[in-house]
Amino acid sequence: MKIICPLCGFENEEGSRFCKNCYIPLTKPSFSDDNPYLKRVEKKDESLEEEWIPDIKKKRKKDDKMTEPRIEGLKEEQKERIDFILENQLSDFRSLEKEFIALLLGGKWEWPEFEKWHKKFTELDYFPYMWSSVQSRPLEEIPEAIRTLDTFAHLSLDARRLLVGNNAANKANQVTMAVEDMGRKVGMMKNKTLKLIEELKEFNLAKYPLEIIEKLPILKVDDLKEICEEYKLPKTGKKVEIIERISQNIPEKELRSLLPSEAQRDTARIGFSLSLRAKNYVNWNIAKIKLLTHTLSFSSYKLENVKRYKQAGIQKVEILGLDNDPCPICAPKHKKIVGINDLDSLPPFHPGCRCTTVPYFD
Q1: Where are the domains of the chain?
Q2: How confident is the model at residue 62 (pLDDT cuts 50, 70, 90)?
């Protein structure tokens, strides 16, 4: 039986211990469809609903929006968008991450909780799994990367989505792809995608239309080697080297007749062209946003999980940490029994926390 992750909705194979999409622990007694405590929902007293809803609403009112106690310096529209995302979470956690990256990358915002926990984990000489990409801070600001982030922040949200959705915001070279495919990855029709490409061209972040030789990067290496074989050219080397060899030795008119239909499609090139140091700096900022996405999502999910527990008549839960990654923050809470009304005693206990809860019956 598939195990549905309660955080992102991903279908994991039976017996999976962790979600392959968002990495939180999975336990069959807590999350499977044949869960006995979930079946008790059908028998619950309808008056129970009125009992707990005011408590949840009161908690949300106290927190004011989920973003405000966690992120400082956001624009009002960013706050509203984040709260909308959290209240209507995407089923695919990767899509959720990309939406947050498009919304926040390059922005002038601060995450005090991150600074507090980075200092704490540094003192402990321990960083949890989800901190692996952010534990080493960039040693210095890279002017090229700062300009890249500033440019990204000045684009429209849809243009940023187009770059992020096509992995074109943090590459050493611009991404070459058929226009239809670019739009399809972010749910846009071709005509809208072309408008966004025109916007990117104003910032020198796109080229369209492309010459036939410029379309070569979308071909597979085997296709490129076949072209080399046709013209008795060496087939060795990296893809970029083979493309350069072909463009230097085969006239464009002859090349056009050899290219498969994939390379004949309406194609564009988008994205930044970053040096290694600038790319690493941008990637660090993206990793920080991914950690924030997980933290906000997990915190928002906690309220929904409490709702489900109360619907099922569950009053206590057992906290489960990770046996193979004993976090010094979470380890003392492992196997601890707590009441579901004590929200501060429920995970997450820190950004990137992967602890979970299961029902506890006396």
Answers
A1: 213-265
A2: very low
